[in-house]
Design a protein that fits this description.
Elements (H helix, E strand, L loop, with lengths): L3 H28 L6 H36 L7 H37 L4 H31 L21
Helix pairs in contact: 1-2, 1-4, 2-3, 3-4
Length: 173
Amino acid sequence: MPSLRVVLKILHSLSAAGLIGGLACYMILLVSAPQDNAAAYSDLRDSIALVSDYILIPSLAVALVSGLLAMAFHTPFMDKGWAWAKAAMGLLMFKGVLTVVGAKADHAAVLARKIESGAMERAVLDSAMRHEWMTLWIVMALSVANVVLGIWRPKFVRPPKAQNAPAPQENAP
């Protein structure tokens, strides 16, 4: 029977793969978005929303929870700078995926429907897509950096604490 540490490591690694794969899938769908047919574009946006809802968010949640649990149950991780950096980046990724990537996919699907009905101009959607791409690349970079930190595990050293040494005395003549 594998230990809890091993189970958490497997869950964390698999969910990291799912997260990066989900981001890549999202990007591929976005690149292949039909630009000339508003109905097809709207359908593609629905597919992107499904990728966000069923791959990205669950993968990120499992990665974040399994990583934090690994820190809690394997106490040597508490003293490692790389583990804390991964935790901080994981929280940033969680915020990015939940508030921006998922919301942008849903928002862009609504905008595409409005463009299809003639209620909105295409420039609004193009602006939303630029922000979406920026967010996707930032979250992808954070995801890859998290994997690199987990494999490389650099030693982030803290500066030595100043000791309360007595002040040097001047020699009087």
